[in-house]
Amino acid sequence: MNQTLRSLAAHILPPALTLIGALLFWEFWVQWRDIAIIVVPPPSAVLERFLDDPDFFRHHGGWTLYEATLGLLLGSSFALALAIAMAHSRLTERALFPLAIIIKVTPIVAVAPVLVIMFGFGTTPKILVAALFSFFPMLVNAMTGFRDVNPGALEFLRSLRASPWQLFWKLRLPSALPYLFAALKVTYPLALIGAVVAEWFTGDRGLGLVIFVANANLDTPTLFAAVGVLALTGVTLNVLLYLTERRLLFWHETIRTIR
C-alpha cells in the first residue's frame, strides 16, 4: 500500500505542483500588469465562471467527448485494418500508404465545411473529422508494431506451420500492443481537437461551439473555462490509458522498467 501511494505521489505531485505554480504566476502577472479581462482573464475569473454553471460545461464537454470517442473508434478501425494488410504485404503498403499520406497532409479545417454540407449539421461530420485526425498516427504505429516481432519467435511458429491468423494473434498483436497504446495517447487528444474543429462549423453543441461563441462575444472567462475543460479531459484520458497500459502490459519490458 505504501509503495502504491509513493508511486502515485511520484507521478502526480510533480505535474500538479508545476500546474499550481504556473496558475499562480498567471494570476500574479495579470493582476500586476492590470491586463483587461477581455484580453487575458485571471485563473480566478476562469474558475469562478466554471463554478457558476458547471453543468453547462459538463453537458457540452460530454458531447465533445462522445463525438471524439466515436471518431477515434472509426478512424482506428480503418487504420488497424489497413495496417494489418500492409504489414503482411509490401505491395499493399506501396499501393495504399501514399493515399494515407494524402489524408494526413490534407488540411482538415478545409474539409470540415464540405463534410457539413454533405452530412448536415448533426453528429456525423464531427465524428468523421475526429476520425480523420486520429487515422494516420494509429496507422503508422500499428503497422510498425505488427512488423516489430521477434525473428526467432516468428521462425519457430512458422516451423510449426502456424497459419497467418495464428501468427497474427499469437505474435504480431502482442508485439504491437505497446505501439497501439502509444498511438492512443496521441490519437485520443487529436480526436478531441478534431471534434472541436468540426463543432466550429456545425454550431449546435459541444465545447467547440462554446469556444466559438465566447470568442465572438469577447467572453474570455467562458472561452478559457471551455479550453480548461478540454485540457482536463485530455489529461484524464491519458492517465486512464496509462493505467490501463500498466495493467495489461505488465509483462512487457517497457512497463517493467518504469519506476
Radius of gyration, in Å, reads: 22 Å
Number of helices: 11
Which CATH architecture would you pick?
A: Orthogonal Bundle
CATH third-level topology: MetI-like fold
The overall pLDDT, averaged over residues, is 84
Describe this structure in words.
- The protein has helices at residues 2-33, 43-52, 54-88, 90-105, 108-119, 124-147, 151-159, 164-202, 207-216, 220-248, 253-256.
- The protein is an all-alpha fold and 259 residues long.
- It has a single domain (54-256), classed as MetI-like fold, CATH 1.10.3720.10.
- Helix 8 runs parallel beside helix 9 and helix 8 packs antiparallel against helix 10.
- The longest helix has 39 residues, at 164-202.
- It starts with a helix and ends with a helix.
Keyword list:
MetI-like fold; globular; 259 residues; mainly alpha; 11 helices
Structure in a nutshell:
By secondary structure, this protein is mainly α.
Write the layout of secondary structure elements.
Blueprint: H1 2-33, H2 43-52, H3 54-88, H4 90-105, H5 108-119, H6 124-147, H7 151-159, H8 164-202, H9 207-216, H10 220-248, H11 253-256
Helix pairs in contact: 2-10, 3-4, 3-6, 3-8, 3-9, 3-10, 4-6, 5-6, 5-8, 6-8, 8-9, 8-10, 9-10
